[in-house]
Every structure is written in C-alpha cells, then in structure tokens.
Design brief:
single chain, 338 residues, alpha/beta, eight-stranded parallel β-sheet, two-stranded antiparallel sheet, 13 helices, 10 strands
C-alpha cells in the first residue's frame, strides 16, 4: 500500500519538513529537565499549537512530540509504564491537526535514540533495543501516524533495531543520523558508511534517510553531499540546525536567521535532498522563508564545498570523515548571521 509520504514524493521534487520541537516548547514554557513528551497528556493544547505552527508555515511533514518517548528515556521521569499512552496521545493530536490542514500533510512518529549504548561498548542488546522501539511504535501506530521517523541516531545497530520495530508494526519508516564529530556520528559512521548500511539492511529499508541536528547547517550540507556522491536512488533527508548555538542571557540561542535557513534549504535541495527541514533553533518564521525560497528559486547544479562555505559559513572541522579536505575557513560574504 502506498502511503501519504510515498505519494507526495512521487508527485513533488521536494517536501518541506518541520522545525525544532524543543525550541518551540521551551518558548511555550517548558523547563529544562522536564520531559516534553508528558505535555502530550498534560498540555495537549500546546502540542496542538506546535503542530499547527509547522503546518501553518507550509510544512508538508511534521514530527510528533515523542522523540524521547521510549521506556529507557521515560524511566528518567518515572514514566516508563506510560509509553503507549504518551505516544498514542502525541500521534492523535498530530493526526487531528493534519486532517484539518486542507491539504496532504504527513504525520511522522518521532523515535529518538534510547540513550543507552549498544553492545559491545555498552549494555544494550540488539533484541532489547528492538523491544524498546517496538513498544513506542505500537503507540504511535495506534495514534494514527503515517510513518515512523527514527532520528538523531549514532549507532548502526540502533538504527537497524528501530527499523526492525517499524517492520513489526507494519509501518513505513524514515531514518536520520546525527553527524557531529568531524563528519562522523558519535559511533564513527561517515556519510558513505551510512549509505552502505542503509542499502544493505537485512530488514525493509527506510522510505528516505539522511541527517539531522549535528553542529550546524554547513556541516550538514557537507554530509548531504556525501550521501549524494554514493549514487543512492533513495530520497535523502536534510534537517539541519538553525545556525550555531550560543549561550545568551542564560539561554541557548541559535544564530541562524530565516534568510540563512532559506539559503540552506535551497542548497540542501541542490545538494540532492528531497525532504528538507530544520532541527534545533528552527521556528515557523524560518520555515516560512525556507518554503518561499524553495518555491521561488530555480534548481541549480550541485554546489561545491566552497559554495556552501561562502553562503552558509565555515565547516566546524577540516574533514568530513571521508578523507576529503574542507576548503579554507572563510567568512560568509554578503550577509550576517544571528
């Protein structure tokens, strides 16, 4: 059966995803250390506003407020017995918002990492990881998501475990990893290694794959170029942070302006991404400019690394993990960030 995401991908050259969940909820009053997923039960009106903000800004796809909704992470808040309830609630609010949108909008059930380290470096077994993700996926499916969205993963085995959970519940899935250590994930995967892993999975593969979060939009675009260089036919996802985080007046502030993220969105498309959104720091104001830029800017040839640096900013490391050196550190010309 063809789902909403697959249908939109067959009809469109690009789709706009959503922005930051945490940034928006902190602006609504979430306190540091609190579990945002509990707001699905305690403050459903605020979660509805979160989803409607993305839809109103033009997103074709938004993630549910369930990133940390697995038993391992909810245990930190003594809520590990509420996994199904919390995920179902987050998905149901999203389903209602999408159905009222007046156009096709994909509800993507967010599943973040367990927060535990896989064997042999840690204690988490593959089978236990599948169980953890499966429990969460059942709640998301019951709430009516269109697709499961595995994100911010660093280990290949955890990525595969989440995909296996998606197969158990019979839902399509997408998966992104976070490349934040000189172009590698925390567990050492490069962009090229991720493509090889995705294309050789022994489970049904993701509808789309890519990168999210990381250390900045420039680095994420370099990773997208790394994916595209492997010649994959699978749709690529780009969800970069809105600039670089800075500590200002006691709060984390991302210095990426809406105009910067508009440039990023167009470059992400030209780099080869087909699902383009933002991660930390990305607000509806950013999303509106991103959509406008994608609609109004004609596609261009694949940009070089020099072009990325000139338009978005310098990379955080000299290499991206694949052996290709980055261009010299140059200041971004023509526009200030933040």
């Amino acid at each position: 059966m063809t789902g909403t995401l697959e249908t939109l991908l067959s009809q469109r050259d690009w789709l706009l995803a959503d922005g930051a969940t945490g940034t928006t909820l902190f602006n609504m009053g979430l306190s540091s250390g609190d579990a945002p997923e509990l707001w699905n039960i305690d403050h459903p009106d605020r979660i509805r506003r979160l989803y409607e903000g993305a839809i109103g800004a033009g997103s074709d796809l938004f993630l549910t407020n369930t990133f940390g909704g697995n038993a391992a992470r909810l245990k930190l808040h003594d809520a590990q017995h509420r996994v199904h309830e919390i995920n179902r609630a987050g998905a149901e609010i999203g389903r209602e918002a999408a159905d009222r949108a007046g156009r096709p909008v994909v509800v993507a059930g967010s599943m973040g990492p367990t927060g535990e380290i896989m064997r042999p470096m840690g204690a988490l077994t593959y089978d236990r990881a599948v169980e953890i993700f499966h429990e969460q996926a059942e709640g998301l499916k019951a709430g009516g998501v269109d697709v499961l969205w595995v994100e911010t993963i660093s280990a290949a085995e955890e990525f595969r475990a989440a995909g296996a959970a998606a197969a158990r519940v019979g839902l399509p899935w997408c998966g992104t990893m976070s490349f934040d250590t000189a172009g590698r994930t925390m567990m050492g995967l490069t962009s090229a290694a991720m493509v090889e892993m995705v294309e050789t999975l022994d489970i049904p593969g993701p509808v789309a794959f890519g990168a999210n979060c990381g250390v900045g939009a420039s680095d994420l675009l370099r990773t997208i170029l790394g994916f595209a260089a492997q010649g994959t036919d699978r749709p690529i996802i780009a969800k970069g942070n809105a600039g670089v985080p800075k500590f200002v007046d006691g709060h984390i502030h991302y210095d990426g302006t809406p105009d910067l993220m508009a440039d990023y969105a167009v470059l992400a498309r030209d780099c080869g991404a087909r699902i383009i959104g933002g991660c930390c720091g990305t607000t509806p104001d950013h999303l509106r400019r991103m959509r406008q830029a994608l609609e109004e800017t004609a596609p261009c040839p694949r940009p070089t690394l020099d072009t990325v640096v000139e338009r978005i900013g310098a990379f955080s490391s000299a290499r991206d993990g694949t052996g290709e050196p980055a261009p010299a550190d140059r200041r971004r010309r023509g526009r200030r960030r933040g």
